[in-house]
Each structure stands twice: as structure tokens, then as C-alpha cells.
Amino acid sequence: xxxxxxxxxxxxxxxxxxxxxxxxxxxxxxxxxxxxxxxxxxxxxxxxxxxxxxxxxxxxxxxxxxxxxxxxxxxxxxxxxxxxxxxxxxxxxxxxxxxxxxxxxxxxxxxxxx
Length: 114
Hints:
Blueprint: E1 4-10, E2 17-23, H1 29-44, E3 55-60, E4 63-64, E5 80-81, E6 84-87, E7 90-93, H2 99-113
Parallel strand pairs: 3-5
Antiparallel strand pairs: 1-2, 1-3, 3-4, 6-7
């Protein structure tokens, strides 16, 4: 298994998810350029992403990435880095385990069971 950095940027606009896998050592400018393309596409189609809802999670096969690259939202604010993100009803953690997701599902099931 080779070592890869994975960046996950989640934008909640009609449940649009943008995910990209980046080879270790690749410049973060590649992903920022991809984000800029999405921003231009949205503007061209009279849509707007809500930068405050963007989330960024970065991890490696060794665990959480303590120095993730920084990305900019369409409103020029920095996209916040999170240790975990939720998408498609699954919580992904930067350490690659599903403990947070399992805890969330268990808590919800117990509350519904009474």
C-alpha cells in the first residue's frame, strides 16, 4: 500500500460533494484550481456556493494530517479544517475509523427506542 494524502472538501449546495485524492507531495494549488473551476461554473449557472458551509478534512494512511493544506472558499474565506465530516449520512474521521459514526448511530437508535 502506498502512502497517499487524501483531501476531502464538502460543499452543501443541493448535496454537492467534491472529493479528490492527491498523491503525497502534490501541490495544494491543484485542488485550489479545481475549486476555482467549480466556483466559476456556479457563477456561470447563476448559482452560489455558501463558503461558510465548506468543510475540509485531510488524512494519510498513518492517521490525521496535522498540517493539511489550506483552501479558499468562493467568498475568499479559508475553508475550515475538521477532524471529521459527515456526508451521505456517514461520518468520516481523519484517522480512518468509524468510531464517531458508530457512536452517532447508536445514540440515535437508543433515543428512538425510548
